[in-house]
Amino acid sequence: MTVTIKTSQGDIKLELLEQEAPLTVKNFLEYVDRGFYRGTLFHRVIDGFMIQGGGLESGMRQKETLPPIRNEADNQVPNRRGTVAMARTGVVDSATSQFFINLVDNDFLNFKAPTPQHFGYCVFARVVAGMEVVDRIGRVPTTARAGHRDVPVDEVTILDVVRDEPAARQ
Questions:
Q1: Rounded to whole angstroms, how far apart are CA atoms 98 and 65?
Q2: Which residue stretches of 65-113 are H helix?
Q3: Which band of pLDDT confidence, cut at 50, 70 and 90, is reported for residue 167?
């Protein structure tokens, strides 16, 4: 299954890894189906690392989320360029709505052991179209704002995230 992240910089198509991260994909689709991502920002952008979004609105206002989910990083899917993983706090099972897209291979984010410092970040999707949009977002100028660092100077908005229609059978 694929979804499209429609952004103010262009579209990004994701293939969801339903077999590898079923709980995470289900959680992400719950937010998609509720229209939660509409109007949120890519609020953390670090060139040469990743772009993060899906939880803050214009003015850096945090949106209310569903309860956190179990971290499925032990699925062993690596954080490689173009993969999408769930953002979280230092608590292993704290992911809610925020996600990030890896701009480079970030092996240090992979699952290494079932301990808080080595659990890693769950990859649940990969970019299948629009990586040039991801790279463009990754290069926007950033600043500090509202207690956050690496915030785009000009907001990069997620206009919507929508499920793609399955291809018609021939």
A1: 9
A2: none
A3: low
